[in-house]
Amino acid sequence: MIDAHSCGSRAKTDRIDAELISRFMAFRPDAGRTLPAQKLRILRALTSKRAQLVETRKRLAAQVKAQQKQGMHAPLEELDEALHSLLDSQIAELESRIEHLIAADDTLARTVQILRLIPGIGPVASTMLIAEMPELEQISGEKAAALTGLAPIAHDSGTLRGKRAIGGGRRSLCHVMFQAALVASYHNPVLKAFADRLRKAGKPHKVIETAVARKLVTIANALCR
Questions:
Q1: What is the pTM of this model?
Q2: DSSP state letter for 163
Q3: How far is CA 13 from CA 155, 157, 204, in A?
Q4: Measured distance CA(166)–CA(11) in Å, rounded
Q5: Are residues 114 and 48 part of one domain?
Q6: Can you give the residue range of the structural domain that contains 115?
């Protein structure tokens, strides 16, 4: 089935709606994304599992904090510490496997090296960009931002008519880029100046964070190209 997502568009306008409806009746042999190379599929599996374990560790920390407030942590402390240690060990193992996989491939290693030149892009963000966006360097900056879920989407029809907001995209990558944006907005000279201008203009924190994250993706795509 043809929809806005398969065409690489998240925007919703009357013109786009009409175009998608007309395409619906036509066969599109090029629909969908091509399957990434095996090494990229392995890298994606490793980074996805790491993200899952990191999220589990965060939830465990929140549960421990809640138990402490309720005075119920002592009976479970030993179990929680054992689980936390296990998660730390598994995350470290995955990070080691990711590092070795990248080091064993000259192309991946070179791409990571380029991405790490950007202040704010660390080991996690660089590997996530490669794993979750194999189109990197082959598309425009605007397209890269859209695929990450950081591009403003126009809604000229439907219930959100007249509004623009980000949405969709590859959520795990979007989450990581938001974290990278927090670092970049204070430690990347160019993006810090950009963020400061937005702060002075009275923009909300979420808007600033989104704008910086979008610029990070655009810069990363441009450097890789």
A1: 0.71
A2: E
A3: 6, 6, 26
A4: 10
A5: yes
A6: 38-132
